[in-house]
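Why do we bother with a discrete structure alphabet at all? Because it lets us treat a fold like text: something you can write down, compare, and reason about line by line. To make this less abstract, here is a complete entry for UPF0173 metal-dependent hydrolase Hsar01_02545. Read it the way you would read a sentence in a foreign language you are learning: slowly, and without expecting to understand everything at once.
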Amino acid sequence: MKLTYYGHSSFAIELADGTRLLFDPFISPNEAASDIEVDAIEADFVLLTHGHADHVADAESILKRTGATLISNFEVAGWFGDKGIEKTHGMNHGGGYDFPFGRVKYVNAIHSSSMPDGSYGGNPGGFVIETPEGTFYVSGDTALHFDMKLIGERHRLDFALLCIGDNFTMGPADAAIAAEWVGAKKVVGTHYDTFPPIKIDHDQAKGAFAERGVELLLPAIGETLEL
């Protein structure tokens, strides 16, 4: 599968059959992603980990333009439904659902969640996604927590996307432990460098993961990886 990074916590996964999964689209407000043409991004499914503006800023416009299906927690799905998004699928923690591209499970995250207008955004979460091409974990914004060990016990991951920016989420040291617990030997970092409080030292971050035998990938904005 192919992963294209759009900055902050936004990325797309393209499967071999052409299905496009877009996660947490915060692109147009991100100065570092100014070279990304948001209106050129295609998606079949848009997955949102929680309601904060730095994860949902471009979701409404992309959903309406592409006709993609929104997958998120029940409250976020309902909020977008009230905005005229017709194709939504609400989930909650511990639940899984079989979509045409594979199985999605909504898993725990320790963070907060509110919508851009201040309304309730439900509980934040992450996703474990099983496809015929492989299985991966998207942490969303979270602290390190013991539920991650359950992911490692119940799933065989090919890679993970973990927040590493510190201050609002795990930093590199905790994220490296998270990688170990979930059983991921390859990690793509998210939620770093966008704002001053989450600027990181890339070499130090990679070193923290390497100490635990994990490869940390920090792609450039707009870069596509084969995973």
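What the structure line is telling us, in plain words: The radius of gyration is 16 Å. The chain has one domain: 2-220.
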